[in-house]
Design a protein that fits this description.
- The complex is a heterodimer of chains A (335) and B (241).
- Chain A has 335 residues and is α/β, with parallel strands linked by helices.
- Helices cover 33% and strands 27% of the residues of chain A.
- Chain A has 11 helices and 14 strands.
- In chain A, a hairpin with a 2-residue loop joins strand 9 and strand 10.
- Chain A is elongated, with a radius of gyration of 23 Å.
- Chain B has 241 residues and is mainly α.
- Chain B is 83% helix and 0% strand.
- Chain B contains 13 helices and no strands.
- In chain B, helix 1 packs across helix 6 and helix 8 crosses helix 9.
- Classes of the chains: A alpha/beta (335), B mainly alpha (241).
């Protein structure tokens, strides 16, 4: 669906993106992860034909964004970080306008506005002026306008920005409901959010992809294994010895148990691969009751800091790196 | 063209749902009325054709001011609120966006001009002027209004701030208005060139007198086209930045 080859974008002398190369298959939900100013917004704006690339090739659904931008625009729905909404219009009027702008006839536009309002659960505010809506509803209207012309590719820039926890959960459900129907690229600087929603993560730093894969793959590559927190009731030394006997376990350290009780302990386990199943089997065989077993809570943050962090050399630990970067700091321009 | 009309109708709805258009038009109508009663009618007895001529003279000023004040929001507001990306990422040509926005502001400028019709009608009823004089005068107002609206549209595409856009447009407008004065200080053929470019003096006077000259009509249309084209080019250039 998307083929990006050696893309560069400069704002004046400053490089915002590049060299950037990646491809995204039809139907995938891909997250662009990076710190503020990493180049996520610029990359999405180029995919949406809001900006033109300085050099390189960007092909969406087989069409080059420079050669036939209008054909690309027909196939793309774009939600920028600030939803482009006209406050004086009602939600329905706005959706009809957005649909007609993308080439739908009046009758089609009215029907699609109703359908998309229903699917994004804004039909109860369809007659309200947009200016009167809460931030959560505005974000939904923003997504609705991006969907209204049935695009093949949906580009969402920071779709959870500014939402409260309840709205974040609702937005997550909404995005999951779109799975399969659309190819979706969303950007965020929150790894946990991206890993909740996306099939694959592209980590972008200083305008380049520095890693890609699922959360588990990134963890495997960067943290060289998995971190587990195991809470159990039973003899601590026996449990430690049992876990040490499992192939792949690299380190064990005592940690604070999340619950209290007689003989309740917690161990933090580092292993080369996922050893959860074997760990549980062996502990139970030793009459040790496993009360909880989770992936390390800080694992996501560790991945993010290793990949996107701005400390010099932070990303060099990874195996899946892009070519050497210049020291320029590529900041995005909101204009 | 459908896209341009679609954008124009949305813009017009935006104008009519905000106080800006009402306030600007109301103030300009008041100013126009005061100028009419204070200066055009005057104290002493005058020929009704002279009163009508002066009415069009004053109305040309209020029409240009209205055009600048109404068009300052066209692009500047959208860029400030971030809504322009909706148009920029839709399969719509830049020229259609510019045309739609221009048409919406020009419709209001035309509406303003129409609302002044009671003054020429009073002259027509109480004096002796021809319908042709009135029609030609209004044609001049509309052409001048179109040129000023196009200048305002161009000013609006340059910056995000509406007041700054209005100032830029006003400066361009004033420069074009006073070109004939600059021309007096120069020699031929620059004098003829600058005089010909001047927006009001040579060009609008015939309309005030009820004289229709195709050359002047083409001049105003060319000015409007030039600034709309420049606006389109600015939009195109923005994508490459």
């Amino acid at each position: 669906m998307i083929e990006v080859q050696n893309l560069f974008k400069y704002y004046g002398e400053r490089r915002a993106v590049g060299p950037l190369s990646f491809s995204i298959e039809k139907g995938e939900i891909v997250g662009l992860l990076g710190l503020n100013g990493a180049g996520k917004t610029t990359a999405l704006r180029i995919l949406a034909c809001d900006l033109l690339p300085s050099s390189g090739s960007v092909v969406v659904d087989g069409i080059d964004v420079v050669d036939q931008p209008d054909e690309v625009r027909r196939r793309v729905g774009y939600l920028p970080d600030t939803p482009p909404l006209y406050g004086e219009m009602t939600v329905h009027e706005f959706l009809v306008f957005a649909a007609r702008l993308r080439g739908l006839s009046r009758a089609e536009a009215v029907q699609r506005a109703r359908d998309v309002a229903r699917s994004t659960q804004i039909d109860q505010v369809a007659r309200d002026p947009i200016a009167s809506l809460s931030h959560g509803y505005r974000q939904r209207v923003g997504i609705a306008q991006a969907l209204v012309h049935r695009p093949r590719l949906l580009l969402l820039d920071e779709p959870i920005l500014g939402l409260d926890p309840v709205q974040i959960v609702e937005m997550r459900h909404l995005l999951r409901s779109l799975r399969g129907e659309y190819t979706i690229v969303l950007s965020s600087h929150i790894l946990s959010e991206i890993s909740e929603t996306c099939d694959r993560i592209l980590v972008i730093r200083e305008g380049q992809i520095v890693a890609s894969g699922t959360e588990a793959e990134l963890s495997e590559k960067l943290l060289r294994g998995v971190r587990l927190e195991c809470t159990f009731a039973g003899d601590l030394d026996k449990a430690r010895a049992t876990i040490e006997s499992i192939a792949g376990v690299k380190a064990i350290a005592e940690s604070t148990a999340m619950e209290t009780g007689d003989d309740v302990h917690a161990l933090r386990v580092e292993a080369d691969q996922d050893v959860r199943a074997e760990l549980v089997r062996k502990l139970v065989a030793q009459d040790i009751d496993v009360l909880a077993l989770t992936r390390g809570e800080r694992e996501l943050e560790s991945i993010f800091i290793r990949l996107a962090g701005d400390k010099p050399g932070a990303a060099h630990a990874q195996e899946n790196t892009a070519p050497a970067r210049s020291s320029d700091t590529a900041k995005e321009e909101g204009a | 063209m459908t896209n341009a009309l679609l954008i124009a109708s949305r813009e017009l709805r935006g104008f009519l749902r905000s106080p800006l258009a009402y306030v600007v038009i109301a103030i300009m109508l008041l100013v126009d009325g005061l100028l009419y009663y204070g200066f055009a009618i005057g104290g002493q007895a005058r020929l009704s054709a002279e009163v009508l001529r002066d009415f069009f003279y004053f109305s040309s000023g209020t029409t240009m001011t209205t055009a600048i004040l109404l068009s300052m929001r066209l692009f500047a507001e959208e860029k400030q609120t971030g809504t322009f990306v909706l148009l920029n990422t839709a399969p719509v040509r830049d020229g259609e966006i510019v045309a739609g926005k221009f048409l919406s502001a020009f419709a209001l400028v035309g509406g303003f001009a129409l609302l002044t019709i009671y003054m020429p009608l009073l002259i027509f009823i109480h004096g002796r002027v021809s319908v042709g004089h009135i029609l030609v005068g209004y044609l001049g107002l509309l052409l001048l209004g179109a040129a000023a609206t196009a200048i305002g549209t161009f000013g609006s595409v340059l910056v995000k701030s509406q007041p700054v856009a209005a100032v830029i447009s006003a400066v361009i407008l004033v420069v074009m208005l006073v070109l004939w004065m600059v021309a007096r200080e120069t020699d031929s053929p620059i004098r003829e060139f600058l005089t010909g470019l001047s927006l009001h003096n040579l060009r609008f006077r015939p309309f005030m007198l009820g004289q229709l000259d195709l050359e002047h009509c083409v001049y105003y249309l060319a000015v409007a086209y030039f600034f709309l084209l420049a606006t389109t080019k600015v939009l195109e250039a923005r994508r490459w930045r």
